[in-house]
Amino acid sequence: MVLRRTSSPDTGESTHSGDRRVSVLLPLPLSEAYDYRLPDHLLGPPGSFVRVPLGRRELVGVVWGEGGGQVADEKLKDVRARLPAPPMTAPLRDFVDWVAGYTLTPPGAVLRMAMNVPEALEPPRPRTAYGKGSIEPERMTAARARVLAEVADGPPRPAAELARAAGVSPGVVRALADAGVLESVVLSPRAYFETPDWRHPGPTLSAAQKAAADDLAGKVGAACFGVTLLDGVNGAGKTEVYFAAIAEALERGRQALVLLPEIVLGAQWLTRFAARFGAAPAEWHSELTHAQRRDTWRAVADGAARVVVGARSALFLPFSELGVIVVDEEHDASFKQEDGVIYHARDMAVVRGRLEGVPVVLCSATPSLETVTNVEAGRYDRLGLPDRHGRATLPTIEAIDMRNAPLVAGRWISPVLSEALTTTFEAGEQAMLFLNRRGYAPLTLCRACGFRMGCPNCTAWLVEHRHLGRLECHHCGYAARLPDDCPSCGAEDRFAACGPGVERLAEEVAALFPETRLAVMASDTVGGPAAAAELVRRVAAREIDLLIGTQIMAKGHHFPLLTLVGVVDADLGLAGGDLRAAERTYQLLHQVAGRAGRADRPGRVLVQTYMPEHPVMQALVDGDRDRFLRLEAADRRDRGMPPFGRLAAVIVSGPAEDAVRRLARRLSQTAPRDGGVEVLGPAPAPLALLRGRYRYRLLMKTPRETHIQRLLHEWLDNVGPRGGLRVQIDVDPYSFM
Q1: Which CATH code for domain 396-437+500-632?
Q2: Concatenated DSSP letters for 499-515?
Q3: Which of 242, 289, 414, 734 counts the highest number of beta carbons within 10 A?
């Protein structure tokens, strides 16, 4: 995308006569940068962060380049200040432009993701710390005594840190300081991030691991762009292999970025990293405090943070010396951003790697069809790890045909799976039950009239969360107590929970195995990184016999004594017409199965399914991933679907359904349909009402070589939605809801 730099904000006349123009991009949903006059005393390189007027406001933006020169000098306003922050690098500015052009998003909206911590643009403030003074308190209390014991031999510490160590409130510390009992010391800003030591000894690698590690290290050492798929079975030791690439980057004075799909659940990954490098990496995810985000952003820009592990948004951090990008579990759908700027972090990681001129490593046991196709076309390299590390072997996978294994009324665990659980517990081993459905029950209905409890804001049923005592919508967050009477017919106490969620499964297990120590692992039961780390620790320490949970259990956990995995409803992800339903179901079930038998004891996986003949189930049981991918690729190629064709979704939404429908129909009537281009729809979205907005979808389908962004521009540029209507574009859609 070529960013236009010819506008100037209409903010009145300037009183200065200088003629140096710069274009400043602001972190707002604007399609172009604005021209400003830059006074000589504020001169700085492109990428400088500057404070500029816009209407009655003053905003911080980025000097994007030279001004366009088409606005009269007398209408320009002056840049008011240049902030003391490292300038945004040229590759990152190019990346912002590229993402904006590809996703058809205003560049300012993309820039906002790259500078979403404004406080980090100011220099870190000095800190006040407190140490032992020369006088004694007039009155000694237990709390004061603990504070004095803490400062007796240690270095000065900030009030909050000292109070936390002594188990008192910060007010106790400040009172002692005011009385002169503690002396205050001004410290320079803390170096928050230790430098990982690439010379720290790591584990002994197998021959296959070492060959792959040497290959990746060589590519990092060559300091040029390329993409490599690290393709290894679950338990093959892929993490230790790409650690070699990180070590090479560190040795050469470069930074490294690792993207994980669920960073809040990366407790074991963080432990392994610290063991390998002797220090923790910087983290970037939504659970950080504002202060942590500020310090991390600044440390990345300054180069103090050498390795960052983060969620997809870490891709927009201001690395100054990037040396390698790793996308772990590259197949995971969590890398797709569905709101705001809609992008896929795996694909954008490849783009940033190309713009930075650094290698990119995509890592997975179940790589996406897009990545496999790129490997087969020669665009990506591939390194294979076909065996588990050490003496561990892959688990056996068996399908339980539920058509021939009827369930006991009110139960969801088949007799075959129940017997396997009994055997596992008697052997002193651990088990995992997987059901990708949160809460107690996905549907609550009245047995008198059939009324179903639905969300008032979305086309979705309310999910019962019995441990919270309420019904919840998993799309908008609406919550309500289950009423005593049916809102439709008024019947009392006639509501029934239909279908199982993980809470209901836990209830069943507790009845079947009352002595078993169990825990539920789902996104609404794991409250952040600390809680996730504690749960993982308890499983590893054998304080839990059975783990019941959703897809977050599938991602990278290593439990040596976990030998049995039971999949309760394997068919759940195959429903509907989602393009990637089969692929995603296979990936998820394969990853879940990979938690079993990762150490010396063999693993067993039991999959409850009503469709054992489905290609997904056949591939799992036979262990033939490549055959499944070939079948999936042939089907997509025949239909011209990604990665062999292009798709873009156009979603029209608004508060009034009639207005949404009319605009969607008008778009359909003006849609391009030449050169093999098809536009399907409009049709109500499966989630026709979402967060109080009605939604209609159109789907553009084109040949692979079509410049789909140009078509979308020509089609939609003249659309001017009014009355709360919104047109959203999703290039390369992953969700069809």
Answers
A1: 3.40.50.300
A2: S--HHHHHHHHHHH-TT
A3: 242
The number of beta carbons lying within 10 Å of the beta carbon of residue 666 is 13
Task: List % helix, strand, coil for the chain (3-state, nearest 5).
Answer: 35, 25, 45
Query: Is the domain covering 142-187 a CATH 1.10.10 domain?
Result: yes
Q: Are strands 546-549 and 226-232 parallel, antiparallel or unpaired?
A: unpaired
Alpha helices (runs of H) in 453-595, residue ranges in sequence order: 502-512, 529-540, 581-593
Of 616, 640, 611, 643, nearest to 627 (Cα)?
616
Q: Does domain 207-385 have CATH number 3.40.50.300?
A: yes
Same fold flag, 21-115 and 396-437+500-632: no
Lowest-confidence range among 107-116, 229-238, 304-313? Answer: 229-238
Report the DSSP pairing between strands 226-232 and 381-385.
parallel
146-150: long-range contacts at Cβ-Cβ below 8 A with a sequence spacing of 24 or more?
Answer: 147/172, 147/173, 147/176, 147/182, 148/176, 148/181
Interval 30-50: pLDDT, tens = 888 999 999 988 888 999 999
**CA-based max dimension of the chain:** 88
* Range 661-686 average pLDDT: 90
What percent of the chain shows pLDDT beyond 70? 95
In the three-class reduction of DSSP (H, G, I as helix; E, B as strand; rest coil), residue 325 is classed as: strand
CB 459 within 8 A of CB 403: no
Query: What token pair was written down for 716?
Result: 């939609």
Residue of 587, 506, 517, 576 lying closest to 554 (CA atoms)? 587
Task: Give the DSSP H or E segment for 290.
Answer: helix 290-302
Which CATH architecture fits 645-731?
A: 2-Layer Sandwich (3.30)
Mean pLDDT taken over the chain:
87
Q: Which CATH superfamily is domain 21-115 in?
A: PriA, 3(prime) DNA-binding domain (3.40.1440.60)
Candidates 55, 57, 67; CA nearest to 24 is: 67
Judge contact between 523 and 287, C-beta under 8 A: no
The dihedral sign for the CA sequence 134, 137, 143, 145: positive
Please state the domain extents for the chain.
Answer: 21-115, 142-187, 207-385, 396-437+500-632, 645-731
Query: Is residue 3 pLDDT above 50, yes or no?
Result: no
CA-CA-CA-CA torsion for 351, 357, 358, 363, nearest 10 degrees?
20
* C-alpha span between 393 and 173 (Å, rounded): 56
Cα–Cα distance for residue pair 307/326, rounded to 1 Å: 11
Tokens of 298: 């600044």
Q: pLDDT tens, 565-577? A: 999 988 888 876 6
